[in-house]
Structure prediction request, 287 residues.
Amino acid sequence: MQTVKTLQMLRTALAQLRGNTGTRIALVPTMGALHEGHLTLVRSAREMANHVVASIFVNPKQFGPNEDLDAYPRQLAADAALLEAEGVALLWAPDAEAMYPPGFATNVSVASVSEGLCGAARPGHFDGVATVVCKLFNQVAPDLALFGEKDFQQLAVIRAMARDLDLTRPHVDSIIGVPTVREADGLAMSSRNRYLSPDQRVAAATLPRAMQAAVRAIESGADVSSTLAGLQAEILGAGFGSVDYATLADSRSLASLAALGPEPARLLVAARIGGTRLIDNLPISAR
Ligand code: AMP
Prediction:
């Protein structure tokens, strides 16, 4: 595996990888501090393409002023070893200067789907995500790109961007969502889980457990708003300090739903425990 840190080196390495026509390249964008969730994306990518390009970039534009940009874990050498062991061909690891040279002035902003949920709690976050992912798509020009359903709203924002801007590499239909990978107790894997104290880590597993119970209740016809109120109470009772949202939403538009309808729906939650904000989401079968 080759690690490249400048755009020029990236272009040269990509030209070598592409070689023959028909060679398919998959991109797996990450912010590093890799865990099994990320590695699952890489394994899926390997099955779907000839070569996998992974990126590691802790994108300053997607962090708010009071968020954890400085504290975010950085471990490039360890991450590179994990990616190499998974058969990644190329690691794109630019620094902030390479990604945003002096004079950088463009913002990619996706309205609508980015506005509620995490977009409401983290102003500017999805502009930062859309801008960097648009750049990564143009830099690597992959045939397909893989993202986790763990960040369900992020996946929706990226798909909307690719559709609205008529992107071709990748085309919106080649943006692949991969189901969330979980710890044995159900907690969704996240680079931020390492911020949790041992007690918080135990309490955090209440989140997916309570969400699964809420999904079962809603699927069996329970009232949505009282189920969501009960879910919030259970999360707070387990030791979470606040719940940013606990919402039933349409899987495509992410518009919130008062009741389950014929379209696929999703239960989405963001809650804070200590200083750590955790998100999770689960599918709900339509009626
Ligand atoms: P991050 O490094 O947190 O920006 O995540 C990079 C990619 O990995 C994103 O597409 C995430 O949605 C995905 N990802 C993160 N955690 C998980 C997980 N537990 N299961 C599946 N994908 C994940």
In short: The CA atoms of residues 65 and 122 lie 10 Å apart. DSSP finds ten helices and nine strands in the chain. Residues 191-282 form a domain with the Pantoate--beta-alanine Ligase; Chain: A,domain 2 fold (CATH 3.30.1300.10).
